[in-house]
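the two lines:
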Amino acid sequence: MSKLGNLGARLHRGEVGYDFVKNRKIWYGVSILITILAIAGLAVRGLNMGIEFQGGAVFNTPKNTSASVSQAERYAEEASGHDAIVQKLGDGSMRIQVAGIDTGAANDIKNTLADDLKIDSEQINAELVGPSWGEQIANKAWQGLGIFLVLVVIYLAIAFEWRMAVAAFVALIHDITITVGIYALVGFEVTPGTVIGLLTILGYSLYDTVVVFDSLKEQTKDIAKQTRWTYSDIANRSINSTLVRSINTTVVALLPVAGLLFIGGGVLGAGMLNDISLSLFVGLAAGAYSSIFIATPLVADLKEREPQMKALKKRVLAKRAAKGETPQAETGDESYADEPEDAAPAVVGPRNQPASRNRGRGRPSGKRR
Amino acid sequence: MATPKKGRSASTQSKPGRSLVLILIALVALTGGMFASGHTKPRLGIDLAGGTSITLRAVPEAGNEAAINKTNMDTAVSIMERRVNGLGVSESEVQTQGRENIIVNIPKGTNSEQARKQVGTTAKLYFRPVLATEVSGGKGTASPSPSPTGSPSDEPSGKATDKPEATDKNSASPSATPTTQGRAVTDALKADATPSASASDDKAKASPSPSASGGSAEADASALQAKYAKLDCTNEKTRSTVGDGVKASEMTLACGKNSQGQWQKYILGPAEVDGTDVDKAQATLDTQRGAGWTVQMDFTNGGAKKFGDITGKLAQNQPPQNQFAIVLDGDVVSDPSVKEALTSGNAEISGNFTQQSAQELSNMLSYGALPLTFKVDSMTTVTAALGGDQLQAGLIAGAIGLALVVIYLLAYYRGLSFIAILSLLVSAALTYTLMALLGPAIGFALNLPAVCGAIVAIGITADSFIVYFERVRDEIREGRSLRPAVERAWPRARRTILVSDFVSFLAAAVLFAVTVGKVQGFAFTLGLTTLLDVVVVFLFTKPLLTLMARRPFFANGHKWSGLDPKGLGAQPPLRRTRRPAAPADPKEA
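prediction for all of em together
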């Protein structure tokens, strides 16, 4: 089988694994750093809102404009320094829309355009246009977003628990901030495509986190009935056991988007595709990353504060201490390659088994089936 | 949750063939429907396919030029936006241009004439009591002779008839009235929303009575009456100016078409209820009384009270003064008579609406009247805002990305990847046919962001398979043979899929319900693909895997099947002595 398949098997058996939870501080640090960079980028460069949001100027050329749409688009972008939307109208005239222009600048651009297009500037009719993505759409979108977030936190709190809801929310904010920040840094204009991309990220980020949490919930179901692993151990194991899935899913989701971004936008030079696929690419990557490196360790962190979990940890540590530092040898024929939590290859076990079950069943093992 | 044993017996596995057949039938039906309807391509948004651009100019009202300001223009834009984007999926764009223009861009394939009407109609709605009415003859006039008018309209009453009367009293209002009383209330609304009609007998009587009604309408009433006498509704120019500049609180003249298509003229009292009193309106097909398409209006609380009051008053009058006229932008759309106070808080406009005209009207009533009157300045086609190269570049790039996905799946899942790829194909085919069919059905149009969203949806759909496949492989690693592994893995995978898809669907549902415009369009696409994901995994991937697990190629763990126990690093069979990775049976926990 392919390498990944073997990796999957070894992850499954717990032969390899990465201690995500233990090293969480590093990853928190990385995330905080990126987030600060993103916020700084946002603060310094700001978002470059497209014509759909802030309006701009529209130039209507006379009927027999000979230039092609793409030529006109280039001219307009050169003249204004902003993205332009060019449409040919039924009568052969052109409608050229440029963002972020006031009346003064509009005149200059009009003259430049007239030169480029070789028509009399008198014949170009310049006017200001309002946003097509007006305040109402924006307000409603915010409202919808707010309602959704409240509902999803409630849902996660019920389906899982409030700690997971909090962690998922933090991961979501993390993903969105990073995406928006990088967008600001790159300096692309924000179009409706960007916003749609961000909304897609929002859904995907939560989706991905929920898949990981589902495994976490399953594995920690009977955690209180055993004394072998702390919550962090099991959280870590659950991340590792879904790792192959996470990698596969991320690859499959990212490949087409990468195609759009690097081939469509980069090589073939399609403008609007860039806007969408950049936000999608960054967001999908951030979403996959945060589910594993941020959300789950965060849950473990929160969980370990619970008195019950604290007590469990104490018991586990006591037990380990009693057994000495090499529990692995002893537990060899039990479910997990059990190691103290500070050992480098983390505690990783078969994914579907909450620890307690295996414990309960360790003895009569041969009998099953 | 996820108790495999229970799940195993309860779930669909037992009849994998059945669900496969089901989904194939659905696929064939959708594809057939797509070809039968002739819409084999999804409608593309204005950014990809271009469309029609309508420029509207605000018409200044005498004495109220200041009304053309930014606030009112913005309000008009948002109302128009909602009118053309009724369901939120048509990707139309509305924006202001200059001080007094509004541009409306609608994607190709939309009925632009209809769109023009939708955005251009002001939709000022008033309920006014009818003081007098008569057929407005071609000659202008006179002719209130009872008999001629009476008879023609009587017949129509047969066909047109239901009185737009209101509401809850279905049983009370039925057509009995027209006949018994000889008072044919033919309020037929004309499809174009202009109609009207009134009981013709009434008019017969009415015509003499202007003066009578004049009693209530004092001094200037006589002036109005003189105008009324001269009013010729068959003249389009007259018609379009007849109600101009009249305030809601004044009496007015108005025209409307009755059920036979004759023009009818009216003297109407001050408006008692207006469009702002309508909470929402809805087009409904009245099958019970055979009235065809009607528009149901729900009043706001205040509106319901006012409407109850006016109908109570009118019910005591003699015809035609027991009628009220529903006046839309100066035209009488309908003039039902009232027999009793209607206090239920809703009313119905009926007549010969088509489905489309009923929906248009209800749309307009729901979203309110434009604050300004607009005239269509120009209507012209526009090319795609993005240009063809973008779509092409996107498609090429998307295809390359997909090819990479397929290669990756093949490399990683081997034989299993065929199930994954087949599932993706089924999912893609379902998405495509549904989108193609939704174009004509609800005006769904696909724009570039939606295309990209659909590409990301591939990832989400694939994730469902991946979650499931990984579970199956884990079971195999624990030493199970394939068939039990497939069944045991399913309940857990199923739960994961459902829980995570629910989050996506929640996002889609909330955004669709709350937002407008492009965001709503996005939410629709997201919801659609999420649902399809669940459908495909449940009805296709799982049953197919169950079936495939019976084939020796997979069951024996062929090297290329992707389920080769050795390749997966499975432990030797369970009965051996050492079991480092003990398999689980959750039941025993």
